[in-house]
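Listing S7. Sequence submitted for prediction.
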Amino acid sequence: MPRTLPHTAREIRLAEVPSGLPGPEHLTVAEVPLPVPGAGEVLVRNRWFQVFPSLRTLIAGGVPGTPFPPLRPGDALFGPAVGEVVTAPFVRGTDDGGLRPGDLVAHFQGWREYAVVPVSAPLGDALPDPAAHLASGATAYAALTRIARLRAGETVLVTGGAGGVGSLTGQIARLLGAARVIGTTGSPAKAERMTAELGYDAVVLRDGSPIGGRLAEAAPGGVDVVVDTVGGEQLQAAVAAARPGARIVVVGTLATQLSAASGGTTAPVELDAFQLIARNITLRGLTGVGDEIHAEWTERFGAWLRSGAVVFPHTRITGIEHAPRALRELFEGRHMGTVVVEV
């Protein structure tokens, strides 16, 4: 029996630009008319969407040259989401991607109950849990396999090892043959889980003092590969610990994005260029993952999840009305892994 659609739906909008970290007081739950799909589009009911730290940068005005536009007061927030198709004006087997009501699709119109999105291929059963399509593992996988080109027996450092990217990076590095995997975090409880569940051999705790000495103790021989999600002082420490020929991949700037004292749109850090030259260290950023790598990752991720070789560390928060609180809790570091709102 066809689903009876509502006339309105809820979405989360930016009410005002904060001077520091955004929280529930800067967002509003708005009731809007149900969107209507046009040619080449389908209407989806969102099932899950990701709460991600880069929203801080977009709310603060964005960074020129990055893929996403800034958010202005009155704009609906957006981000990775998995939605269920509710109206598809096409027939399976044509060039519409084969969508029909009930299929799940991935898109970037999270933070709302219903969305109109371009026709795309259905997700199918590649992953045992559809919400796992919101994992940030493709970034970690690309950093390790395509940029750093991790080799068996090497030592890997992951800054922010308990976050959405970091909580999968340690596991992937282990599966790809790393001999030793080291992570950083500011939470003793997270550190315990990182070594017990997520493939880390050692965790360097941030306690407000410089971490360089503790990192040297955890990796006395230095590190070969760094996946940096933090920047700042931790990136400085990573360069100091790098072996000759080390490869450093910068994928995030949490040090500034999670800081109330920062503007959220710059991430300055002072590095010793002499050390980069003398030890032939490669330093490269990663902003996105192509379709080919993403497909390869999804296939391997699904197999690893089914075999139990990896887990998908995440926190689920039920109800779109609780999404603003989830964003604040993300900035406060309360949750492990990816933060997912179940609509």
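Caption to Listing S7: primary sequence and predicted structure tokens for the chain studied. The chain has a mean pLDDT of 95. The first strand starts at residue 8 and ends at 14.
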